[in-house]
Amino acid sequence: MSDEKKSKIEARSPRGLADRDAAELAATGRMIDVIRSVYELYGFEALETPAIEYTDALGKFLPDQDRPNEGVFSFQDDDEQWLSLRYDLTAPLARYVAQNFDRLPKPFRSYRFGNVYRNEKPGPGRFRQFMQFDADTVGAASPAADAEICMMAADTLERLGIPRGDYVIKINSRKVLDGVMKAIGLEGDENAGRRLTVLRAIDKMDRLGPEGVRLLLGPGRKDESGDFTKGAGLADDAVATILSFTLGGQYKDGEPRFGLFELLGRSNVGAEGAEELLEIEDLVRDAGFGPDRIRIDPSIVRGLEYYTGPVFEADLTFETKDEKGHPVRFGSVGGGGRYDGLIGRFRSESTPATGFSIGVSRLYAALKLVGSPVVSAVTRLGPVVVLALDRDHIADYQRMVAALRNAGVSAELYLGSSGMKAQMKYADKRNSPAVVIQGSDERAKGEVQIKDLIEGARASAAISTNEEWKSARPAQFSAPESELVGEIKALLARQG
């Protein structure tokens, strides 16, 4: 192997990051348009925050860490300040509200979308960069704000093409979970780490099932790759209480509500959370959202530490198959909750807030599998291609392209060095609706040849011999060069 070959860099994408082609970008754009339209229908307005924040503003790290890169990508600027790529879109919103508090209307209703970044081990369905679309209400303490967020999430999924019955918005409360923690003796700052381990274990119920969660609540669990996750180390009776709460308390409409108060051991904070949940449930029912769309589910946790009250999760309930025929259940494609203490990190008084985030990248994959019209493959025509058959007349070809563009027609001049056959193949790959051909004969006559590639493809399917092809010259015709724009616009109109 030569030294030159050895020095070549391997073309590879970093793990957990992906390229996106034009078709996916167009489909994602349509998704964003639909989500935006629903959010604006509910009265939310657009906001954009930077992808980089000061690390301490993200609220995730201890101040004595030398390099705060656990979970986020961090670096130091020339002032030796730690900066991080945003982990989500909520912490930057909290910073923005605190920074602009006096001039913002309260409640402040905003939506934001963009990429977020996680410095975590990538895996199936887990990426280091992915897009989220958030909506938040800041300055409203009423459970009505939480109920509205849940209703908006349900409406958004249906507008995106998820049929009713194939999704559910599940709600729970961190206050309820705090009541359960108190019931098993895990209250107090000294148990903060174990509480977080317990919450993360409950959050994996859908993926790991009761047995996997039982191991994470107890001694720990080894996954399929052999990696071991340390458990919370709870006693058997505490594990049984947690599992009883998360599995035995499923709410079913028309039956008595689950025994929250009994399970919480009459905990004040737990009872308060239960009352808020039941109020949210009453509000969404009064608005016409039945239990097939929004319901209480005590297994919902949400992994982030800053939630303080109701938490929500958008769960896709249908099962489909991937490209290899394997069954796939997407589960959660979004979630959120109330975070009344997050903005208070920047201000002397607490500010109530609640919000919801859609995982756009994950939901895109689900919509693609169910054939949602929002993301289904739509044949997007490329530009009209003007072939460059005579290199001495590039300026003439460029004038044709400019005339088409000035008339609002997407057009390009072939800028490669290949001959006519290769140029035609190029136009096919560009999904061009038509090509414009002018050789010396056409130029002498003041004409161009226009080839309708879409009609030509249809006609060629019925032609079996070269002789038929030459005599038919399907969908190709001559036109005066002066009429090029009108003929192309008429052709595009015929194509619809």
Layout of secondary structure:
Layout: H1 3-7, H2 22-41, E1 45-46, E2 52-54, H3 55-58, E3 74-76, E4 82-85, H4 90-99, E5 108-117, E6 129-138, H5 143-159, E7 167-173, H6 174-183, H7 192-203, H8 205-217, E8 220-222, E9 228-230, H9 236-248, H10 260-263, H11 268-286, E10 294-296, E11 310-316, E12 320-321, E13 327-328, E14 331-338, E15 353-359, H12 360-370, E16 384-386, H13 394-406, E17 411-413, H14 420-429, E18 434-437, H15 440-445, E19 447-452, H16 453-460, H17 466-472, E20 476-480, H18 484-495
Parallel strand pairs: 1-5, 7-10, 16-17, 16-18
Antiparallel strand pairs: 2-4, 3-4, 5-6, 6-15, 7-11, 8-9, 11-14, 12-13, 14-15, 18-19, 19-20
Describe what is shown at a glance.
The protein has 496 residues and is an alpha+beta fold. It has 18 helices and 20 strands.
> Could you tell me how far the N terminus lies from the C terminus, measured between alpha carbons in angstroms?
55 Å
**Assigned CATH class of the largest domain:** Alpha Beta
- Share in β-strands: 15-25%
The CATH superfamily of the largest domain turns out to be Bira Bifunctional Protein, Domain 2
Total domains, how many?
A: 2
Give the strand line-up of the largest sheet.
1-5-6-15-14-11-7-10
What would CATH call the architecture of the largest domain?
Answer: 2-Layer Sandwich
Question: Portion of residues in helices?
Answer: 25-40%
* Rg, Cα atoms, Å: 29 Å
Q: State the helix count.
A: 18
Structural class: alpha+beta
CATH topology description of the largest domain:
BirA Bifunctional Protein, domain 2
Report the average pLDDT across residues. Answer: 85
Q: Characterize the overall form.
A: elongated
Biggest sheet layout: 8 strands, mixed
